[in-house]
Design a protein that fits this description.
This protein is of the alpha+beta class. It has 14 helices and 12 strands.
């Protein structure tokens, strides 16, 4: 048996063994980037403060964002590897708001598959220090995007469907709305000038200002855009394809075979992203591997393969994957490959046999 201090020292050694730079971002960070990238849902978990000018700051809620931001500021482009182990701060429903996180971030590596293998190997090695053989939960963002790019639908709907990937309830609402639209006759759009005049009359009649807030022209344009979008109907066969795909989950090999069969049925070329997922199975050792076609973090900068490693009770111990769009979202001038993961140290310790 080992004690927590020994396990901590072993984890510290594993983090140091990853090479590259040991990152130690400031404890106090600007809050706006977190709201911009992760939205209000994540923002509610931040521990916030303001400076004398009213600018909002937060105690460090993760390592990835400040690491990537600093990498871009230093002149992004050269391959870089970062590892970390230290405290982060997030509000939880129960338990302390300060806890330790460990992880690695591999940026601009020449081979994205090798980089992801290193991330998965690091995660598995960390869990083995705590005697954990995890349940590995995989998702394929790149696989879904490949299907979406080939599916028969108006282009206007592709990005809207993609933005709901990883949000099962929102995706279901959108698909239900599109299914209803296929059974409804298309109504003729009013002329723009007539619509502006009608909106103006209604606003005046209601005593609303024509200059404060949205103008009649803006309201009319938004209405016409929405009507045009609703008129661009998605074929019923495509909606069934999406439903069938998103329902696939279970043992990884079985699930991927089902996706292959679905792709063949609809004449879709999905072999590349499926092979990319299979290539990483060997590095996961004895872990039980499942694949969920609808699984993705609720952040649209993830690409390729995403994963979670869970303990016996289903607790998420590690999460990560490929996030090639993040650096562009933060100001990089070109796409930069990125892979990484984060470990929840307190959850790892809680899995240790008592």
């Amino acid at each position: 048996m080992t004690n927590p201090a020994y396990r901590r020292s072993q984890l510290e050694a594993l983090v140091e063994a990853q090479g590259g730079c040991r990152a130690a971002p400031p404890l106090l960070l600007k809050a706006d980037p977190y709201f911009d990238l992760a939205g209000e849902e994540f923002g509610r978990r931040l521990l916030l403060t303001t400076d004398t000018n009213g600018a909002e700051y937060c105690l460090r809620p993760d390592f990835t964002l400040p690491i990537v931001t600093d990498y871009i500021a230093q002149g992004a482009g050269a391959p870089a590897a970062f590892s970390y182990l230290g405290p982060i701060f997030r509000q939880r429903e129960t338990g302390p708001a300060e806890f330790d996180q460990a992880g690695i971030e591999l940026l601009a590596q020449p081979d994205g598959d090798i980089a992801l293998d290193q991330v998965l190997t690091f995660a598995r090695a960390a869990l083995s220090l705590y005697g954990i053989v995890p349940q590995v939960h995989l998702g394929g963002v790149g696989l879904f995007e490949a299907l979406l790019a080939q599916a028969d639908m108006p282009d206007a709907w592709r990005s809207r469907i993609r933005h709901r990937f990883g949000h099962p309830e929102a995706m279901d609402r959108l698909l239900t709305r599109l299914e209803r639209a296929t059974n409804q006759p298309r109504s003729e759009q009013p002329a723009r000038d007539d619509l502006v005049e009608d909106v103006t009359a209604r606003m005046v009649s209601a005593g609303l200002s024509l200059s404060d807030g949205r103008s009649p022209e803006e309201i009319a344009e938004r209405y016409l855009e929405q009507q045009a979008l609703d008129a661009a109907q998605v074929p019923a066969a495509t909606l069934k394809l999406l439903r069938d795909y998103l329902a696939i989950k279970g043992d990884a090999l079985t699930a991927l075979r089902q996706i292959e069969a679905l792709g063949e049925k609809h004449r879709l070329f999905l072999g590349g992203p499926i092979r990319a997922i299979r290539r990483h199975f060997e590095g996961l050792g004895e872990a039980r591997i499942s694949f969920d076609a609808s699984f993705s973090p609720r952040l649209d900068y993830y690409t390729g393969i995403v994963f979670e490693m869970r303990g016996q009770g289903g607790t998420i111990l590690v999460s990560g994957g490929q996030y090639d769009r993040l650096l562009e979202r933060l100001g990089a001038t070109a796409p930069i490959a990125a892979s990484g993961c984060a470990l929840w140290v307190d959850r790892l310790e809680a899995e240790w046999p008592k």
